[in-house]
Amino acid sequence: MTIAQRRSPRLRGGRRLGLAVGAALALPNPAGAGAPECREAPARAERLAGLGVRGELILASGQRAVLDGVRWPDRPDLASEAGAWLLARNGRSLTLVARGESDRWGRSHVDATVAETDAEAATPDLAAGLVALGLVAVDAGERDTLCRPALLAVEAGARRRGRGLWGQAGPDVRDGPALRARLGHFVVMQGAVRWVGERPRRTYLDFAGRGEDGLTVTVSKRTWRVLQERGLSAASLRGREVRVRGVVEAWRGPTLDIASADMIEVLDGEQAQRR
């Protein structure tokens, strides 16, 4: 059976979820409004003709695009579900808005909505629909800015419901062996910052105590400056509960190298606040 032959997963309570997603996406979105990589091109009509291996949209015009602000899942079962959900819209009219420049492979980063009435979808927005189902995580990718920070609120709803990616707990920030088992994979992790080290080129956020084997987050000088402009500092981060996301690398220990300040969320209770 090919991915195109699989049935798209249905949403229970789709209308209620659709209203919640719509409300989240209607929130003001000032963070990326002026960033060059977030500038919107004029909307254009397209038609979905197929899907690449990692969620690449193959369009009837022959162009290829990727949904902006989301990360295709590493797990084969979730990738299969996400692909089936998108392919259920095969042949449908889409409204695409490209953001910024094309990537190194010539693909546009787009916001995509189903132009026709879609009774089965909780939302006509393709990225938000996948995030709401827990099939993809929010990710700025190689860009400095997350152009659609409202997707984080949609993801929070999927996390609360334990959907998809959020149905099982990931490795603990203080579990070095479990983190090393995820080398090269994208993770979303949460924990208390134990120590912050500011250096001329990078700032280091340690989630494990001295002598413990755990996660270190490295932040470039430019990204650290953005975080400081948002009111964060070494003193204010120390001891705070933080959610970070990125690809696990090995540098003295398991490491996430954060290129976008939007990939660091300071948490207050159950509410993730973007600073």
What are the SSEs and their pairings?
Blueprint: H1 14-25, E1 44-51, E2 57-59, E3 64-67, E4 70-71, H2 76-87, E5 93-99, E6 108-114, H3 126-132, E7 137-138, H4 151-161, H5 176-180, E8 186-192, E9 195-198, E10 202-206, E11 216-220, H6 221-229, H7 234-237, E12 241-250, E13 254-258, E14 264-268, E15 271-273
Parallel strand pairs: 3-6, 11-13
Antiparallel strand pairs: 1-2, 1-5, 2-3, 4-7, 5-6, 8-12, 9-10, 10-11, 12-13, 12-14, 14-15
Describe this protein's structure:
- The N terminus and C terminus are likely disordered.
- Strands 8, 9, 10, 11, 12, 13, 14 and 15 form an eight-stranded mixed β-sheet that branches. A five-stranded mixed beta barrel has the order 1-2-3-6-5. Strands 4-7 form a two-stranded antiparallel ribbon.
- The longest helix has 12 residues.
- It is globular and about 55 Å long.
- It is built from seven helices and 15 strands.
- The chain is of the alpha+beta class.
- 22% of the residues lie in helices and 28% in strands.
Strands, total number = 15
Q: What is the CA-atom radius of gyration, in angstroms? A: 19 Å
> How much helix, percentage-wise, in residues?
10-25%
Largest sheet geometry: 8 strands, mixed
**What does the overall shape look like?**
globular
Low-pLDDT stretches are 1-13, 26-31, 270-275
Strand content: 25-35%
Give the integer mean of the pLDDT values. 86
Structural class by sheet pairing and helices: alpha+beta
Total helices: the number is 7
Distance between the termini: 46 Å
Order of helices and strands: HEEEEHEEHEHHEEEEHHEEEE
